[in-house]
DNA sequence: CTAACCAACTAACAATTGTTAGTTACATCA
DNA sequence: TGATGTAACTAACAATTGTTAGTTGGTTAG
């Protein structure tokens, strides 16, 4: 049950990724599913409804994941490593949805404020982890904004690039990425 | 002379950044300039023309900058540092245009192939620098794709975030960013 | 068997889209 | 003065937009 709606969301996410929310018409979406535009409305209530369903659900996944990480008493570097894994997992799971999250959130109407709230909270937790790492002497004392920005943009853009791999390969990918982000690239 | 067209491009870039190319109408753009939509066509030949003018000119700036860097005989780490400076400078110079470059290139029509060509060439040069750095023992022997990806996405997203600063502050910002990207964040 | 439901359809709508044609006021230059 | 050019305007266009109303055929439940 509900499977038709999920197909619609999946197809919509893929089209949104190609052309962006605004450039995808209900006729484009319908035609990609082999039906007529009006038939979509048996399953969803509006175009906006589709965007909300895609974006908010992923934003909640991130919020949850961050909550779990913050509730454990680990070192900052351990937490950062867990955050890398979280992003890798969610990006592999739904890369097209991640694209909408990154590129189409500004077209949210009613739910835009809720999205921004979640995003700000997430960033704030991230920043706190960095600060604690610096206080504890685990991280270099460099401008916090630069560290937060460079790590977060890389992680947020993972969907653009992440390879389809099996579980073990994905594990080692996560570890290499954490290595680059945390320990740098020079010898 | 030509100053009106430049105003149009500047305003367009700012609107494209807010809502994306597809969601900005010629009436939106005109109204932001205090004129009527039809009047725009005294200065530009089409909406597509505006996007091309913005995106291609910045893509050429990057191509040129990379050309200059590749023509010098420096170590890989020196070249990477120069690339960071290049991105910082161009991002400060025209952040809204950078946004179009990153988010609206897929709406290019005639010039899309030219854009993709420049982008691929740029990436290929970047990748070559990393490989040489690894061969020369200047860089750790980590997956080249991961290094290229994580550095480039951070640099490409700089416009989202770069602070308005004076020249000396900008210099030290560039240096801190290069430090994070190349030498990592842990102690 | 029949009632209800599902998921598709056709047809149409009002609004909005990029763009063109033709006009007008004003400034510059011969 | 008169010619040319610039940059705005009004009015209109054909196409496309998201969405609604009403219908239909097939499947499921009582």
Explain what this protein looks like in three dimensions.
The structure is a homodimer of 187-residue chains. Chain A has 187 residues and is an all-alpha fold. The first copy, chain A, has a single domain (46-183), classed as Tetracycline Repressor, domain 2. Chain A is built from 8 helices and no strands. In chain A, helix 1 packs across helix 3 (47-70), helix 1 packs across helix 5 and helix 4 packs antiparallel against helix 6. The radius of gyration of chain A is 19 Å and the shape is elongated. Chain A starts with a helix and ends with a helix. The mean pLDDT of chain A is 95. The first copy, chain A, binds a DNA duplex (30 and 30 nucleotides) through residues 4, 25-27, 35-39, 41-43, 46-47.
Map the helices and strands:
2 copies of one chain form a homodimer.
Chain A: H1 3-19, H2 26-33, H3 47-70, H4 76-93, H5 95-103, H6 112-135, H7 144-156, H8 167-183
Helix pairs in contact in A: 1-2, 1-3, 1-5, 3-4, 3-5, 3-6, 4-5, 4-6, 4-8, 6-7
Chain A binds a DNA duplex (30 and 30 nucleotides) through loops.
What percent of residues of chain A adopt helix (DSSP H or I)? Answer: 55-70%
Tertiary shape of chain A: elongated
Q: Give the number of DSSP strands of chain A.
A: 0
User: How many H/I helical runs of chain A?
Assistant: 8
Helix and strand content put the structural class of chain A at mainly alpha
Poorly predicted parts of chain A: none
CATH superfamily of chain A: Tetracycline Repressor, domain 2
Query: Looking at the chains present, what oligomeric state does this protein adopt?
Result: homodimer
Mean pLDDT of chain A: 95
Strand content of chain A: under 5%
The CATH class designation of chain A is: Mainly Alpha
Count structural domains of chain A.
1
Largest beta-sheet details of chain A: none
Named CATH topology of chain A: Tetracycline Repressor, domain 2
Query: What distance lies between the first and last C-alpha atoms of chain A, to the nearest angstrom?
Result: 54 Å
CATH architecture of chain A: Orthogonal Bundle
User: Could you tell me which chain pair has the largest interface and how many residues each side has?
Assistant: A-B, 39 and 39 residues
Radius of gyration of chain A: 19 Å
Order of helices and strands of chain A: HHHHHHHH
């Amino acid at each position: 049950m509900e499977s038709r709606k999920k197909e619609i969301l999946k197809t919509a996410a893929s089209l949104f990724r190609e052309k962006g929310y605004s450039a995808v018409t209900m006729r484009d979406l319908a035609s990609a599913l082999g039906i007529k535009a009006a038939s979509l409305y048996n399953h969803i209530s509006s175009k906006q409804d589709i965007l909300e369903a895609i974006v908010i659900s992923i934003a909640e996944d991130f919020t949850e994941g961050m909550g779990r990480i913050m509730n454990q008493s680990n070192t900052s570097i351990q937490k950062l490593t867990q955050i890398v894994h979280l992003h890798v997992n969610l990006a592999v799971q739904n890369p097209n949805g991640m694209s909408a999250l990154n590129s189409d959130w500004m077209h949210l109407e009613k739910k835009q404020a809720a999205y921004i709230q979640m995003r700000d909270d997430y960033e704030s937790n991230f920043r706190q982890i960095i600060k604690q790492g610096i206080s504890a002497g685990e991280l270099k004392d460099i401008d916090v904004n630069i560290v937060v920005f460079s790590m977060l943009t890389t992680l947020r853009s993972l969907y653009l690039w992440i390879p389809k791999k099996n579980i073990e390969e994905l594990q080692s990918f996560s570890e290499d990425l954490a290595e680059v982000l945390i320990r740098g690239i020079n010898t």
